[in-house]
Amino acid sequence: MEKALFRVDPRDDVATALRDIDAGSIVDLDGAPLSVREPIARGHKVAVRDIAAGAPVLKFGFPIGRATAAIPQGTHVHVDNVLTALEPDGRYAYAPAFDPADVPAETPGFRGYRRADGRVGTRNEIWVIPTVGCVARTAEKIARKADALHGEGLDGIHAFAHPYGCSQLGSDLEATTAILSGLAAHPNAGGVLLIGLGCESNQLDRMLAAIPESARAKVRTLRAQSSANEVEEGVALVAELAAEARLAIRTPAALSELVLGVKCGGSDGFSGLTANPLVGRMSDRVTGAGGSTLLTEIPEIFGAEQMLMDRAADARLFEGIVGLVNGFKAYFTAHGEPVSENPSPGNIAGGITTLEEKSLGAVQKAGRAIVTDVLSYGERLRTRGLTLLEGPGNDAVSSTALSAAGATLILFTTGRGTPLGFPVPTVKIASNSTLAAAKRNWIDFDAGRALEDGMAPTAEALLAAICAIASGERTAAERNDEREIAIWKRGVTL
Q: pLDDT digit string (tens) for 284-312?
């Protein structure tokens, strides 16, 4: 009998359909027949036992919500009969539970660019960063012209436009400065041109002061209001940077020198079964080798946060995670929004029912590593191991935050597909083979093969792909020239 269902944990009340299942079908469930009473779309859930009204519904071995009505065995389990059980505030206790993954002693490496501060970049690019949105188009003109004239021998010359840097106050302006200065200090940038207007709030001097001294030698600045021809002057400054950056060469680097950012977007019912667990194995391989992983999207751990809290290295970090989670919940409620305003319409169409279900699948990207640090939005990586970074679920905002914090490669899982790319190589990992086949121009790796080939060999194939991309192989987003940034806007606009 063809395998049609996947149950993550023997305790689960539901299983996920691996293909469309017709009503009246008899399918195999872990060696036993299950009669399916209703049509179940691929990626959606079917009840494997009767579920009483009001009872918790288990998937991944944890509750994903409560049944709003009795759910008979063999019927569809989704938004019409399951409701979130999330509360607007949480009370947590620290109960350390460490179970680190066993990782091979020998790990592959990659070829990267070792910078003056010891960090290793996966690209050698020139970045043109506007301090303010007023000169965003100017930055793009400079980068485009400079790439045509001086791009040979580099991995690219790119501008990162944004609309901020003026009419902002307090912490909002500080966050803009932090994100942009974090990008300017990034090891993937062999040279950086900061271009300001001259009268903006986010002044060039402010930006320079926020960049570590070890990175300032690769930075040039330009004030557009003080230049007779800002585009020509900008191109000339980039030419200087390019000449210096070409001196860098790729050299062997251990996996411990890699900084992974992990992200999911457009998730579906397979994300928690294939792509996210595979990325979790990558996180374990990198952190186990002494490297670093950054996990963000804090609203998308609601309902699964205790799993991460129990892996905090000490009580201080546990309190940091509690503050991060409850602070984000307060951010929602202060704006009159429920903390469970997720999953998205695309997530629901793909089979995800509640935020708890989405979160339990999403946190698997972190693997089993111990949490070693907690960062506020705009802060930069400080320690090796697994770090939680404050940031929303929005793909562009959170991926920009990962880049500014120091991620040199982003592993981006998706069940629905997206063309987006960000400042650092963004590896698109499809949760299902149908998406991987349909959008070859978007997708870099098919995690759906894990259902046929098994997790272990698929993980080895993904690790090999990651090392190749870190060594210079271009991602689909890079080939499509998909690169952008987005800054989290939370404060007053003047």
A: 999 999 999 999 999 999 999 999 999 99
Q: What angle do CA 430, 436, 439 make, to 5 degrees?
A: 115
CA–CA gap between residue 176 and residue 167 (Å, rounded): 12
Q: pLDDT tens digits for 3-13?
A: 899 999 999 99
Average pLDDT, the chain: 95
- Rounded to whole angstroms, the Cα distance separating 422 from 490 reads 21
pLDDT, tens only, 325-372 = 999 999 999 989 988 888 889 999 999 999 999 999 999 999 999 999
Domains 5-83 and 125-247 share a fold: no
Reply yes or no on whether the pLDDT at 106 is more than 80: no
Q: Which token pair is 202?
A: 């986010």
Q: Which of 490, 272, 289, 477 is nearest to 362 (CA)?
A: 272
CATH of 125-247 among 3.40.50, 3.30.1140, 3.30.750, 3.30.2010: 3.40.50
**Fold topology of 5-83:** 2.30.130
- Is residue 90 pLDDT above 90, yes or no? no
Which tokens sit at 157?
A: 């010359």
Residue keyed to tokens 């009998």: 1
Q: Tokens 């049609």 identify what position?
A: 4
Q: For residue 309, what are the CA distances in angstroms to 69, 276, 446, 461?
A: 32, 19, 31, 31
With cut-offs at 50, 70 and 90, classify the pLDDT of residue 2.
low
From residue 75, how far is each of 21, 22, 41, 85, 220 by CA, in Å? 11, 11, 12, 21, 63
- Residues with Cβ within 8 Å of 384's Cβ and at least 6 positions away in sequence, in order, are 256, 287, 290, 291, 292, 372
Percent of the chain with pLDDT over 70: 100
- Global pTM reads 0.95
Structure tokens belonging to residue 402: 């990962």
Cβ atoms 221, 208 nearer than 8 A: yes
Instruction: Kindly provide the b/e burial profile for residues 37-46, where b requires at least 16 CB atoms within 10 angstroms of the residue's own CB.
Output: beebbbbbbb
pLDDT, tens only, 113-122: 999 999 999 9
The full set of domain ranges for the chain reads 5-83, 125-247, 255-479
pLDDT given at position 1: 54
